[in-house]
Amino acid sequence: MSKVGINTGSAPNAGDGSSLLAGANAINANFNELYSLLGDGSTLVSGVATVTGGDIDVTGIVTASNFSGSGAGLTSLQSPQLTGSLPAIDGKSLTGIVTTIVAGTNISVSGNGTGSVTVSASGGGASGNTVIVKDDGSTVGAAGTINFGTGVAVSALSAGIVTVTASGGSGGVWSSNAAGINTSAKVGIGTTTADSFYELEVQGNANITGFLTATTLRGAVIGDVTGNASSATQLQTARNIGGVSFNGTSAINLPGVNIAGNQNTSGTAAGLSGTPNITVGTVASSDITSTGVVTATSFDGSNVLKSRTTVTGSTPSIANNGIGNTDISGFKSYGLIQVGLSTAGWLRIYTDNAARANDVNRSVGEDPTPGDGVIADIVTTGLSTTKNITPFTLGGNLDNPVSDKIYVAVTNQSGTTQAISVNLTILKLEV
User: Fold this and answer.
1) Beta pairing class for 405-412 and 323-329
2) Is residue 110 situated within a structural domain?
3) What distance in Å separates the CA atoms of residue 56 and residue 63, rounded to the nearest whole number?
């Protein structure tokens, strides 16, 4: 129950306080409740502490921010909150803690009973040696000392560790630099013993992706050899060029070629005869170019004149009364003989593309302005789509630089949408 209070009244002798009996009953009730919680006055209820000389003896659970004393008999202690010295603890019932150390082979253990033990190597193996030596996983034996001979470097002992490094052998020392791995000894690579004659003997095939530099190569070179032999300055066997011996060590001079003298030749040059003049017979060639004077008893120009040529072009698909352009490959200058369209239309031929563009707004039947670059202006009908040019008209290209292009514009007058073919019969007038 909760605490029972005694009404003392609002003022002295006011007559509104508890009676003596009621107050005594309230006091007895409060003491009864305390005895029920703490004990009967001589025997305490379990879990209640007894204070003796300022100390509290707790048989239950005590929660506090700090503890003072020996802590004997305490359980479930949190180590971060513990300070000071703890009494001796029997760790037999602790988990995760090693309580016994058993010495194995070559190991001895000693202790002083204070929680401290000493572990020492006590020897063993063959004749008391302590190091087992293995070769590629197979046991060689036990040794007390390992001695590294020539060609192996051993660093000083540091923190119980030494480093063993191959540094060469009695035959020479291997090393490396920016160029690669090198050695001062004569070595061999292969399945048999290296020949002492060679600095490096490779037995079998060697694949070299870089440069091979040597003062001497012995034996035959078999296989494909490409590139330039910069050090090969002399042919093994000299050869004659134009009667002059050549072995590759110096340039040669040929008389009648790069030095004065006569070149000894044999054989006959067909069609050439005469000394010092040369008579040329029939030359099977379409053109002969001479930088000097050509003298002849007669000239035949029958094959110089050119025949007329028909060149063609085609416009893209154009609607009726629409304009389509085409550029035809012809000659730099020409005589215009005949024109033809694949349908009824209005044909114009120009000296260049600018003249064609400037003439785009001119109407059929309207004469062009002289000097505007119009070479021909022809209208064809469905009944006659070919027109003869009489007299022949001269035309040409005025591009800079000059080309063989003929600029043509066609207005479709067929009544339907279509591409129109253009035929020009012309005669070449310029090389």
Assistant:
1) antiparallel
2) no
3) 13
The position carrying tokens 């079998």 is 204
Exposure string of 113-129, with b = 16+ CB inside 10 Å and e = fewer, is: eeeeeeeeeeeeeeeeb
Q: Which residues, listed in sequence order, are joined to residue 110 by a DSSP beta bridge?
A: 118
User: Which of 16, 50, 66 is at the close of a domain?
Assistant: 66
Average pLDDT per consecutive 10 residues, the chain (431 residues; last block may be shorter)? 75 81 85 76 65 64 65 64 63 66 74 69 54 79 77 78 69 61 63 61 73 71 67 81 83 81 67 64 67 73 77 96 96 96 96 96 93 95 88 96 97 96 95 82
Determine the structural domain holding residue 314 and report its residue range. Answer: 309-428
Residue 364 lies in a domain: yes
Quote the pTM value: 0.36
